[in-house]
Amino acid sequence: MRSLALTHPDRVYWPDVGLTKQGLADYYVRVWPRIAPHLIDRPIALLRCPEGINGTCFFQKHPWRGMGDEIEAFDDPGDSSDAPIIAVDDLDGLTALVQGAALEIHTWQATRADLEHPDQLVMDLDPGEGVDWQAVIDAAREIRERLEAAGLAAFVKTSGGKGLHVVAPLVPRAGWDAVKAFTDQMAHAMATEAPERYVATVAKADRKGRILIDYLRNGRNNTAVVAWGARARPGAPVSMPLAWGELGTAIGPDHFTVRNAPARLDAPDPWSEFRDAARPLPAG
């Protein structure tokens, strides 16, 4: 149960749908059993929007003045700046993020218990202008095939933005360089084999009509939006785990929102076997 009370609970964060600070906090109470396994004990970066999505927003990955005690601050031995990083361990911590106007929560691909060995990798499919949704679906399925051919399991979720995330759980043995190299090789192989469909570089000039296969979220300190997490975009969309059989044109990237996502709690969790499916990164 949440014990932390909010100040200014009626502050509107998403004016287009009338979603308030209290509404976002209540959403996270409802979906806590689903979001918790993907959030607890992971270093996080936040998109904070104190005036809501139409105001100024900024990224935050270190403690700030007035941050709630429910948010954990801890040292990162690999950060030469000596600035602490942050994480949450319970529902009150998540509520404190909402109190701090964190409208997006992005997590590392590693846990606080082992910062140097990722326990998942993420391939972020970001379509450029003119790419239809079916092409993004086809790209996700191709990545699934490639991951499974390498001996890894593949799970898919909407990004809550424009694309899809394909995520593979890992036994945390390989270091950051190895995981990034693996995803780099996959992204560039796809871009080389089908240059009319894919790019693996972030330059926007190269992306019109093609899908960016963003592997850079697999570097140390880099993050991806947490499953079930809200996005600071019109409509209050969320990043939603899907079963592969659900993937189709009827469910677009922003189909699930803070308003309708809790209905998913009545169905089985398509990611219930996520952690049990972890495998070591293939050698070489």
List keywords for this structure.
single chain, 284 residues, alpha+beta, six-stranded mixed sheet, four-stranded antiparallel sheet, 4 helices, globular
Kindly state the number of beta strands.
Answer: 14
Determine the strand fraction and express it as a percent band: 15-25%
Q: In angstroms, what separates the terminal alpha carbons?
A: 46 Å
Give the overall shape, derived from the CA principal axes. globular
Rg, Cα atoms, Å = 18 Å
> What composes the largest sheet?
6 strands, mixed
Mean pLDDT: 95
Poorly predicted runs are none
SS-based structural class?
Answer: alpha+beta
- Helical stretch count? 4
What oligomeric state do these chains adopt? single chain
Helical residues, percent:
10-25%
Organism: Amaricoccus macauensis
GO molecular function: ligase activity
Pfam families: LigD_Prim-Pol (PF21686)
Domain DNA ligase D polymerase: 20-271
